[in-house]
Write a structure and sequence with these properties.
This protein has a single domain, classed as Phosphoglycerate mutase-like (Rossmann fold). The longest helix is centred in the first third of the chain and has 17 residues. The protein has a six-stranded mixed beta sheet with strand order 3-2-4-1-5-6, sandwiched between helices. The chain is α/β, with parallel strands linked by helices and 184 residues long. The termini are far apart.
């Protein structure tokens, strides 16, 4: 059994049209959401053996703020920055996770939609066994945190329909001021 956490970057700033998508920082709401979700991830109580993260500015800032709030700083987390996560498809994310060392029992991935949402749809069967999947189908907003139990012994065995979605938390579930917003 392996555990996979998925953490979508927090709300980004669209005010500077000159910035490349990769370079967009968080906006004020995103910084607040990252802090709130950092505390929630800490309180969830799972030890993450590794964090796999997109190096996009908004992902890096999400991790920095969440880790400062929850763990005393990002240096407390074992982070691997991997550009392949930036705007990756579900298939790419599955391939990337399949490369993980089997000594890692729990991985937290920080990235982007639609890849993270599609990863949930590919890994969690649509058979009613994970009611939280319906919530994801409605929306997987920025700074959402999900946890999947994977019925695999090796990361290389990661395949479609091998997971149960056991936890889902959106920023607005913890602070109503953080949503909903149609632009998430």
């Amino acid at each position: 059994m392996k555990k996979l956490g998925l953490f979508r970057h927090a709300k980004s700033d669209w005010n500077d049209a000159r910035l490349r998508d990769f370079d967009r920082p968080l906006n004020t709401r995103g910084r607040k959401g990252a802090a709130v979700m950092g505390r929630h991830i800490r309180d969830f109580g799972q030890h993450w053996d590794r964090v796999l993260a997109s190096p996009a500015v908004r992902s890096a800032e999400t991790i920095e703020i969440a880790a400062a709030t929850a763990f005393g700083g990002a240096e407390a987390l074992p982070i691997n920055w991997d550009r392949r996560i930036y705007l990756a498809s579900s298939a790419t994310l599955i391939d990337l996770l399949g490369e993980a060392d089997d000594s890692l029992g729990a991985i937290l991935m920080v990235g982007h939609n639609p890849g993270l949402e599609d990863l949930i749809f590919d890994l969690v069967p649509d058979d009613g066994s994970s009611p939280l999947r319906d919530v994801v189908e409605a929306k997987f907003p920025t700074a959402t945190f999900a946890v999947l139990d994977l019925d695999i012994a090796s990361w290389a065995d990661l395949t479609e329909r091998c997971a149960r979605l056991v936890h889902l938390m959106r920023p607005r579930d913890l602070d109503p001021e953080l949503g909903p917003d149609l632009n998430d």
